[in-house]
Amino acid sequence: MDLLEMLMGNNRARDGFQDFLKRFEEGPPSEGYEDREVLDRYGEVAHNVSQSDYKQAAREAFGRLSPNDREEFGRMLAGRAQSRGVDLSALAPDREQGFGNLDWLSNVTGQIHQQPGLLRDLLGGLAGNRESGASGGMLGNPLAKAALAGIAAMLVKKVLAGR
Predict the structure, then answer these.
(1) Residue 39 in contact with residue 120, Cβ under 8 Å?
(2) pLDDT 10s digits, 43-102
(3) How far is Cα 19 from Cα 1, in angstroms, rounded to an integer?
(4) In angstroms, how far is CA 41 from the centroid of its own chain?
């Protein structure tokens, strides 16, 4: 079942996704939802879209972060991937781009996403400085939470806008 069928076939699911999107758009990208909800929403939508739609949603989601937050997130993601043995050397940003470049971030996130569950694993392991909800801080880093929530929200927004 594709994302459009899922959203259109079930009023309750559609309403839940619309509420999630509204909370994402109205507040800070990392606030307004529990870790479990972010992981569930991301899991429900991320693998039900094309690679190009996924990359575009990632680009839009990262565009909502400040340049400093994007840079921090990019460095964190690259470091976490390296520590887990994921080779991103072919995707390393050049000097002019930097880790916060929207194109680089959306491309590298899209590449990681092609391995189901890897992005969630990399970001889910970033429990950090802050407590964050009932799941014990799985996405304790607000940038990790903002990334997954943002990608899910932007995918939902695209589908709902095109219905």
Answers:
(1) yes
(2) 888 888 899 999 999 999 999 999 999 999 998 888 888 888 887 766 777 667 788 889
(3) 21
(4) 10
The contacts of residue 88 (CB under 8 Å, 6+ apart) are: 78, 81, 82, 108, 111, 112
C-beta of residue 143 within 8 angstroms of C-beta of residue 76: yes
Residue 35: exposed, middle, or buried by beta-carbon count in 10 A (0-12, 13-18, 19+)?
buried
Identity at 10, one-letter amino acid code:
N
Locate 137 and state its tokens. 């801080």
Alpha-carbon distance 162 to 6, whole Å? Answer: 14
As a whole number of angstroms, the distance between CA 2 and CA 139 comes to 27
Question: Measured at the alpha carbon of residue 136, what is the angle toward residues 19 and 43, in degrees to the nearest 5?
Answer: 45
Helices then strands, counting H and E runs in the chain, come out as 8, 0
Q: Which of 163, 158, 134 is nearest to 45 (CA)?
A: 158
